[in-house]
Amino acid sequence: MANEDKNSSAESLRLDKWVWAARFFKTRQLAIEAITAGHVDVNGERAKPAKTIRIGDELTLRRPPYATELVVMGICEKRVSAPLARELYDEKPDSIAARQVLQAELRDMPPPLFKGRPTKQDRRALERLRQSMTHTFSDED
Question: Class for domain 2-140, per CATH?
Fold first, then answer.
């Protein structure tokens, strides 16, 4: 009986532990928060952090702007190096293609007007622009 428990624990693992060990999240707490928020599905259904996953389960991870669909290929309780973690799952070809299309679209977008928070000078320029636009529209009436 003890042998069966060891085998079953080696073949299954908590979802939050697995996504952390597979390096999708930096900490287990971040993994738990993402799963609780509904960003991770197991076999097409919303899951809880304690959901037991097994080899062959299909996961969908949504980390905006990307959604990754993968199949669990291995179980590991410990966080391992990135090349070893990559062997724990197999990403579906449709997911890879969709991610590449989205990356190309994002790359082709124009750069943002402001990088980060606007400076005082930027805020004053925006305020002058808003005032000139309101004067222009009020003069037409």
Answer: alpha beta
